[in-house]
Amino acid sequence: MAEEPEFKYKQCLVVRADLKMSCGKKCAQLAHAAVMAAEHADKGIKKNWFMEGQKKVVLKAPSERALYELKVHAEQAGISTSLVQDAGLTEVAPGTVTALGLGPAKSADLDRLTGGLPLL
What we know:
Layout: E1 9-16, H1 23-39, H2 43-52, E2 56-61, H3 64-76, E3 81-85, E4 97-106, H4 107-114
Parallel strand pairs: 1-2
Antiparallel strand pairs: 1-4, 3-4
């Protein structure tokens, strides 16, 4: 069996578990979070992340408050963030905070912030 590659960088995408959103809606919100957070990332970190294959981990948070708290802690750690607010055209009310993108950043730094969150 081949050895698994070691990823030094990754991006964490976090969606609210307390909202009733279809699978497709969650995917769209997480895609928004991924693109927007990557746009704000450090150029060197982003380059390394791209070269490794752009690892992403999708997690869930229990509430809007949890997303905001995670965002604050990430920003204090120097990690790029992107909070997604929905336009309200389909499944949720306008302005609803649905997801958070973190990084790309060093995997170890993100693990310290998101290690307690379950996978989606």
